[in-house]
Specification:
Chain lengths: 196, 285
């Protein structure tokens, strides 16, 4: 506990101001983007120590608690963030292979194969990735599938890796992309075609 | 200020339900187990739908509840009051004004929009349950995509009755993968499930949540020579003259008198307000 007692007190700030309402709004944004791949929603209210966007912080506050193991990729892992997560969510930090939620930049989170993809009988026992991006850039992939009327366009950090993930359906990981106070979702059910 | 946490459930329960809803949306038609809570109403009265609604509601939502299409039955009224009291949300009987609609056994006649969410109350979420009572086996059947038994059941319908006699809870295949129970909606409603709104299903006693994202392929199972038919009573509504809505039959006397009325009370009311008059309807004063 020495580490915690030396951590700056800013780990105690940055939670939701009004947890029931903020978490409800946060969840609706998260649900909408996962149900409609390609759409962007704003997501804020949570403010983590340096290194995590408001959208990623709010997503973790909305969905994580002592029942969900979180893996912090090396690029976002810090004593301040560990302290903040412990104080606000109580979620245990675990290795990538056991994680329910994994947070970080794309490169730092790889390889994709190390995360839980569920089992044939319980495909829901899989990891959810929260991928921090510097910005939502111009699309390089076309998506079709559930939640998409005709097709949707999305910028993906590694089209081939995410195509392999989609091939595993109904197994696989689900991905949220966060940037600043915005979030996009990519469920395992989306079929991905490289474009441009 | 209410004596309840917003929307009754505690935050950790809502997070657990919310995580299950997300898995359901990512794997359309797959039944996600969840730790269903006891609610202040008996199982069978929509505890699954209520828990899903509680997890989805925001303070700004406008909430509507229907029970077999009607806003004014006991179940619908009590659930609407429950959320008026515990969440303080606005409620409505008008489909158009609602942002979240909780339903027992019907889909509203009016087409739902992108900004609406439909929450179904589900009694038995497992479509294979009456064919195979063991959960361990039905789980394997879903894992292996082994749905032959369901087609045998539909075939037996044809061999006994000359047609597929299943008229409600008619099984569907979602996005070409999971066979799903659409809850006991009449099969008339099945084609509406390919809609713009998000559809969430909650089974409280059976502890399952599942979902259908917008614009997802939902195909009613059938045979090439016995194609699926969305059936309804062959009448027009006796109050509003609608010919395209699902009808309830009402016995009027003991001499064979009967009438057919829209099961969707809001649809019927809005048509009568617009001046449509059925066989037994009265012209608005």
């Amino acid at each position: 506990m020495d580490q915690l007692s030396e951590t700056p007190t800013d780990i105690y700030a940055g939670g939701f101001a009004d947890p029931p309402a903020d978490a409800a709004h946060g969840f609706r944004a998260v649900m909408e983007v996962l149900a409609r791949p390609g759409e962007i929603r704003s997501l804020s209210g949570g403010c983590a120590p340096e290194g995590l966007s408001p959208a990623a912080a709010s997503l973790l506050l909305t969905l994580c608690d002592p029942e969900t193991g979180i893996y912090l990729a090396p690029d976002v892992d810090s004593p301040a963030l560990r302290g903040w997560l412990a104080f606000h969510t109580g979620a245990p930090l675990v290795a990538a292979a056991e994680a329910d939620f994994a947070v970080g930049g794309w490169e730092a989170l790889m390889p994709l194969e190390q995360y839980k993809i569920g089992t044939a009988e319980y495909p829901d026992r899989s990891a959810t990735l929260v991928v921090e991006l510097p910005a939502f850039t111009s699309p390089n992939a076309r998506l079709t599938g559930p939640g998409i009327k005709d097709s949707a366009a999305m910028a993906l950090p590694d089209v081939a890796a995410l195509q392999r993930n989609a091939m595993l359906y109904p197994l696989g990981v689900d991905v949220f992309f966060t940037s600043g106070a915005q979030v996009m979702g990519l469920p395992r059910s989306s079929q991905i075609t490289a474009e441009g | 200020m209410s004596d309840y946490n917003f929307a009754y459930l505690d935050e950790q329960t809502k997070r657990m339900i919310r995580r299950a809803i997300l898995k359901g949306l990512a794997i359309p038609g797959y039944q996600v187990p969840f730790a269903s809570r006891e609610m202040p109403m008996p199982y069978g009265w929509g505890t699954g739908g209520v828990q899903v609604s509680a997890a989805v509601l925001t303070p700004e939502d406008c909430f509507k509840v229907i029970d077999q299409g009607a806003d004014d039955t006991t179940n619908a009224v009590s659930i609407r009051k429950f959320f008026e009291r515990t969440a303080g949300v606005a409620t409505t009987e008008e489909t158009e004004k609602a942002s979240i609609i909780q339903t027992r056994h019907r889909i509203p006649e009016a087409a739902l929009r992108e900004d609406q969410i439909l929450v179904y109350q589900v009694p038995i979420p497992e479509p294979l349950r009456f064919l195979e009572p063991r959960e361990t086996e039905t789980r394997k059947m879903h894992a292996l995509e082994e749905y032959g038994l369901m087609h045998v059941k539909l075939y037996e319908d044809i061999s006994q009755h000359g047609a597929i006699a299943t008229s409600y809870a008619y099984p569907v295949k979602v996005e070409g993968r999971y066979v799903m129970d659409p809850s006991p909606i009449p099969k008339f409603d099945n084609p509406k499930m390919e809609m713009a709104a998000i559809q969430l299903f909650g089974a409280g006693r059976e502890q399952r949540i599942y979902a259908v994202p917008p614009h997802t392929r939902v195909v009613s199972l059938d045979f090439e020579d016995y194609p699926f038919e969305a059936a309804k009573a062959d009448h027009a509504c006796d109050l509003c003259a609608a010919e395209d809505s699902y009808l309830d039959e009402v016995i009027l006397d003991d001499a064979g008198g009967r009438m057919f009325v829209c099961s969707d009370t809001d649809y019927c009311r809005s048509r009568r307000d617009a001046g449509h008059v059925g066989r037994l309807g009265e012209v608005a004063a």
